[in-house]
Fold each of these.
Amino acid sequence: MKSSELSAAIAAAGLHPVLLQGIADSDDAGPLVDGGLNEFLAAAKVLGAKAVFYYVSTFDENDFVVEVSPEASVSSEPADRDVEDGESIDLRILSPNMVGFKSHLGKDCAFLLHAEGGVAKLGCYIEEDWWTAFGEKREEALAEWSKQRGERMAEADDEQAKKREELVESLHALLDDATFVAIRTQQGMKAYALKTVSGLDELDARMLTAEIQALKGEVDARGLNRKKH
């Protein structure tokens, strides 16, 4: 259906069509008639309404775009590159199923109508079938992206955990380093460790401090500094 066709149908029912600025959002519809356009127009006439106000949404390129926020746990990554949080992603890249909807660009896709008569107000929300299908495919694509994103994040967490373990092991190995155990202060030990162990600066600062504190306690408890000096 086109906006002009909807306007003509309203006028044919003896009601005055009034196009409003905005989009057809079903969340703003209020009480909806159980039925389609014909049922709505019949009910509007029974209420004694004189006019029907309506919004029209038109399908455009922006409908293919999804914003990925830092908190989002949605969708499948594009084929040739990773999607960073905060970026805009194209549904046509997420899923080949979305490409076919390009033929509908520029078409009216949804309509929200409302009319008032007496103390009653009623609405009607109409979607083109292809727009309903687009919404379903969109949710499928985003769900798949969410799944794959979760898997990638889990893999990254595992890699980071392994890296932390390796760094801590390298740090503990300094107990066999005569220069390290001879250092009297935790600050000095930390500086020496950062200089000696490659990549140690990637370890969380609080964890590094705690590990150095523990090592200093072990050195003192075992008397390693006294044994070597």
Note: Residues 72-85 have pLDDT under 50 and may be disordered.
Amino acid sequence: MVSYTDFLVGQEHYKELLREAERERLIRAAELRQLGNWRLHQKVADWIGAQMVSWGRKLQRYGTAPSPNCPQVARCQ
């Protein structure tokens, strides 16, 4: 026969299991949120990298002489 004390202990154990499950759910949700933020950061870093490469190419061409076919040559002379 189950005593009232055993029943109360079982109830407390059940409540503790629910608290633990909720804590685990929150941890998983936080990890997913961080993963989502990482993806956003990665996309931003990729875009910035592409922009820097583009700017670098433009800067490298800046000091070079334009080709004779370039319409800007006539304006510069």
Note: The chain is about 85% helix and 0% strand.
Amino acid sequence: MKKIKSNNKKRTVEIYFILYLAALVLLISKTNRNNDIGNDNIQHKNFDLPFILKAEKPMLTCKVWIDSLGQQCYELDSINYIWNAGEVEDIRYDFVVEDKEQNNSMHLTGNEEYESRVFEFVEDKDNNMAVFRWHPNIYIYENKTYIVYVSATAKLINSKNKQRVKAKTQFSLVVSCLDNNQPNYNNEPFVDTNQYNYVVQERLSYQNFQNNTVNNTGELNLFTSPSKIKGIAFQEWESKVFCMGANLKTDLTSVPKIEIKNTPSNNNGTARIVSYSDNTIILKGKVPAFGSSKVFVTIERKNDLKEATISFEVLPQDIEAPIYPKIMYPEQTYVFNPKLPLNIGNARAVLKTEGNKIRAENYQGGIIEFKPFQNDTGKVFVFERYINDVLIGAAINIKVIPNEKPIITRIAEKDKSVVINVSSHGWYNGKENRIKKLDLTGNASYKPLYGKISVDRAAAKWHEQFEIFPVDERQPFTFTVVAVDNMGMTSQKETYK
């Protein structure tokens, strides 16, 4: 920054007081603008990693004053670098300058070369940035505050998603006049003989930056998202760290450093740097078995030895207990829900026999529906869950047992007859395993009461009623009864006198 003429020390306090007021205006200004530029195929996010923008300076200032000889002097910080980071391509910038006092805004268009305009920007794709420059009109002697809203859209590299992602940042421009005297009483423009050299010096500075000969001296920051990573214990995690203010390949004193702190120390969590590009570090590691791991990434810029460190946590994700039947009956359909987290690794649920013959499988870790055959009765099935071919939890054994025998649940007298309730269970040959017949001995006969049938399909229970009456009403009404289902299984014997 070139100083045109030294200022009176008495004015210093006034300068920084005005800058302080301007910063307060910036903080309370609205961040959502009605003239945000976008279109329907853009994802609108203020901070959409892995694509981010960051301005090198939060504020550019121009200080103007009249010296004791009546000459107009100024100091100008005119250039700001807007960095972008992320695995993106085809970046398109958009700049809008808002005049806070006049409550209006100006939309900028980028040019390859600087022109004599108040606000302008150029894109530098080779260095992943845009360069903003302003030339405030110092002859209009008044305090001014502007907000520069920067947005950019881009395509994700190697992504099938055609939508463009969006990132935003902003900074302020402040013009501070240090007294109320008009600089030119004859309304003649003041000509600064040093102005031309100043402009040339700025242009050369930008060209040097393009040639990678400029030294980064602004802010140095690292970003990552999310701040907490959850995964299955012992599974691999991956994260990305983005750098602003340095080229990771050319501007560091050494390669990025990584440190991991496990709590407790024996939880087997690991972390390593896999690779890094100009502004992105890719990390991988193993999720701890329990507790947590805290990963620290540190870089140091070689021209000023400034350091930046960022950290994030890796936590084992609790996996719900699976839902499964404790036992199975033949020809009945059962649901197995492995309860595996969505979008984590290669999830798989398997149901197999003891001989490792797979009978049912779901490669997305989703629900399995399974119906054992009659000849599976007595077999033990094994239910297992995997993520990335690693067994999660213990294998679960489930036995297929025979259908329950029918049971006579009630005998009720009714005038000169009795009514009995009988329950049967399960399926046989694809049909409900109902009561096939009643075996009666004694002075008795029966008929089914079809209107009294009820079913419980979830439990595969079939409830039926039968009326038993005497064959010879002159003889004592006594009998024994056994219920027989379609499979040929019999109930206990019941006697009536």
Note: Residues 12-28 form the longest helix (17 residues).
